[in-house]
Specification:
The complex is a heterotrimer. Chain A is mostly helical. In chain A, helix 3 packs across helix 12, helix 8 runs antiparallel to helix 11 and helix 12 packs across helix 13. In chain B, a hairpin with a 4-residue loop joins strand 1 and strand 2. In chain B, helix 2 runs antiparallel to helix 3, helix 2 packs across helix 8 and helix 5 crosses helix 6. The radius of gyration of chain B is 19 Å and the shape is globular. Chain C folds into two domains: 213 residues, Response regulator (Rossmann fold); 171 residues, Rossmann fold, CATH 3.40.50. By secondary structure, chain C is an alpha/beta fold. In chain C, strand 13 and strand 14 form a beta hairpin. Classes of the chains: A mainly alpha, B mainly alpha, C alpha/beta. Chains B and C meet through helix 1, helix 4, helix 5, helix 8 and helix 11 of B and helix 2, helix 8, helix 9 and helix 10 of C.
Chain lengths: 345, 291, 401
Amino acid sequence: MNVAASPARPAVATPLDHPAARVLIGRHRLRWWETLPWLAAVGLYFAFPAYLGFGTELLVAILFALALDLALGYAGIITLGHAAFFGTGAYTVGLLAFWGIWTEPISSLVLAGVAAGVVGLLSGLVLLRTRGLTLLMLTICTMALLEQAANMAHDYTGGFDGLPSLPIAPVFGVFEFSPLYDNTQYVYALIVLLICFLLVRTLVYSPFGQSLTGIRENLLRMHAVGSPVRRRLVICYTISAALAGIAGGLWAQTNAYVNLSTFDLDRAATVLIVLILGGYGRLYGAFVGAVAYLALEHFLARIYPTAWQLGLGLLLVLIALFARNGILGLGEALWRRYGGKRAAS
Amino acid sequence: MDFAADFAGIFLGGLAAGTVLFIVSVGLSVTMGLMGFVNLAHGAFAMFGGYVIVLAMNRAHFGFAAALAVGFVATAALSVLLERLLYRRLYRAGELDQVLFTIGLIFIFIAGITIVVGPEGQTLELPPALGGQLNLGFMQYRTYSIFLIVVGFLIVIGIWLVFERTRIGAQIRATVDNRRMAESLGINVDRLFTITFAFGSGMAAIGGGLGAEFLGLDPQYALKYLVYFLIAVSVGGLGSVVGVYYASLLIGVLDFTLKLYLPKGGTIFIYALTILLLLWRPQGLLGRKET
Amino acid sequence: MSKRLVVAIAALAITASGAMAQEVKVGVVLPYTGIGAELAQQIDRGMEIYLKLHANEIKPYTFKFIKRDSKAPNGAEAKVAVQELLTQDKVDALAGFVYSPDAIASAPLIAAGKKLAVIMNAGTAFITNLAPEFVRTSFTMWQSGYTMGVAAAKDLHAKTAVVAYTDYPPGKDSLEAFKTAFEANGGKVIDTIPAGGPGAVPDFTPFFQRAKDEHPDVLYIFVPAGDHATAAAKTYAALGMRAAGIKLIGPGDITQDIKLQGMGAAAVGLITMHHYNADLNNPENKRFVAAWKKAYGADSTPDFMAVGGYDGMAAIAHAVKATKGKMDGAEAVKSLEGWKFNSPQGPIMIDPQTRDIVMNEYLDEVVLGPDKKLHQKVIGQTDHVKDECKELGIGRCAAKK
């Protein structure tokens, strides 16, 4: 990365004790509350062992939303086709395992990320010339094309019925995935999520991440300061795609199953809603959104299997009407209003 | 069958398919173009209207034309209510908040229809005059397809006349071009929004009713055809009624032809066509270039 | 462990005395929302009607349904539901499964959970190979498709056929089954047309136009029941294909009873092969349809989905009685191998080798009745139809490795 050569960097060092500089320097440091989600995830493992199947789904959804956040929240790339990469990752793992080529889980995940990254790079080079509704439609159509390709290759992919009972080798040759109890899957997914999260966190607080935010906030100015906008967007899109591919691979491994639904609009739309609901462009929106949306959906559907969508719809409408930028946005607004005085002083 | 009749058959089939797409999508193009509002719930209005039309015919025994009118009015009224109470608050919000809101609305519509009417699909019985085949002189063709093509053409002419020849049309064009300028010239943009929104939703209702013969009608309608509506709007160009018409017909005819000669390609054509058209003209066929 | 033993002993004591009711928990996994919501409703009602009509026979047991929405057919939703039903609710049996992916993704869990799982719809043939606890009371696409292939050549005297199918596994299975049987009996399939996907209803006109231009004796179609089938029948009529001498045939999915009236005059003359229609003339069916109309309104009707639920519930009830309420998975499955039942669709049996249903297939023609409504008239019958996919060992249906 040619960060040092970036003209965006001030030539003269600003005094480090300037308040604004202090905020900038300190913002990447871990804060105490950032451990909370992870403690909660570990707590779930011990407190609700019977919910780990759902918990694993939740972790995968968080990782997928986190991947999208990088593209949508930080670089401002509005896409409704991110399942293209989720599906590519899932099928990479699924095809390798089902046809007995490769079943080791960790390296499979890496391969899933690479495959999805390649698809992201190639499609990004073409699609990222456009913006707005046009870009949105192009991402949907690319995803639909991949889904159709997987359907036409049903002799290999199993099509709509998918590839059943994928053989996934034990993690490190020791920890085996049990179908009935998801303990191993849950811990495995949690560690993968943690690693990916640290990666994303480092990235968004790096100068590269700052330039992405710059592109999102003021495209013209970033052009004016000579930032290589297109290249940055494509790189960001590729990384986001690779992470989405890892999420897809993780999904295929923990479910021991993959089918066309990994490519479908439903999945792409759900992850987008999850992210907007939680609050995009702020790392933890993926966590908050996924938990709020999926937990509500899961438990409402258990109580009202036929009409749970009503409750979910009301939640979305209310959040959209009364909060700006999702649940975290609402939280921030409330904090500023009621608890902010102490923080400001 | 000779070549000319073959060709005419393909052309008419494609036009009919495109016209259905146009009738449902045109309202979406207008609202998105005029207000810059990402109204994904447009399909939900089409579904609501379709249900009103079907229920009016099947349960209250209205005629086809009367039922269409009832569907238009009911849906337009509902949309005015929602626009005044809810949509209005989000005009200045970001487009992603609008997405969240309208998806939530879709869920509410789906659940509402499922609870009130039931999950089963509804069937619309056409008046006998529109069933069967029509003799065009040189060939026979499906009467309803011809009917749709004619109706679609009348609608686009009607909307075009309103846009080009009336005061309100001029106001709408002015607002699409430059909203601030229009406001400062004393155009009541608020009222304009409400009227356009109501009209667009009413058109969606008509589309839901007229299209039910091809697309069916069930609670999932609001979601499952959304992509097609968005394709028509984006390829046509935001806010351009004639653009959506051309785009719908172009996609309809090309998709129809390719499906007929290369059926193994399945549903890839519509997506591949959209990608090509959008890469060729990112702003849509008749859209304005982004500034 | 000891707790389970205590419960088992208590259960035994209760059954022995016959005095108190014992509750059997059945986890029902169906798509209560989304495109399959209507099918879920039919299966649900089929199960309810069975319990209503056989209230005396199932004593002293009572059934508690724990319903879970399998939502979109991505497998994962159903899998989590099955997992929680087995590990949290500790159900005695599982039932439902409309979409094949739901059953396929859940198979490893069901094999690990060792509880009877009755498939009430999902029709992909190889599913029952995936777990020894699966018993299917619905059908496979091969049963109607293969029988229709034979009938088209022998009874309808067709020489050529075009097949148009919705491009997903049931469509491909149906095509494969029809083609295998039709060509084995002297017919020739001259074109196969994938006609759109299952999600959204396509415009059938280009596909049927192509078929019309090829002048086959019959056009065999498989499309999902509902909006797809209605649109297909209307397009067939509107293109004047009957006048052109092309018969429209297919599996009975396309003339699903709840959709039949909505198809209107376009459907008259349609010939289908299926194991059930609501007009079947036998006492069991008369009782079933009468009870249905009484419960859900004169305008409602059961269909083959409902019968899948009805027969599946009968299977569970039989297993409960045979195992004296213990519902140990292996024993419950064993009690159903070779089980015979007099269903509204006629006599059925569970094949002891494949755990798939063996049933009669009826060749039906849609006719306009004196009541101005559409009915299905049986014009031919094939008894004891097995799943030919497994009989012939095709693809993944071949016996397990």
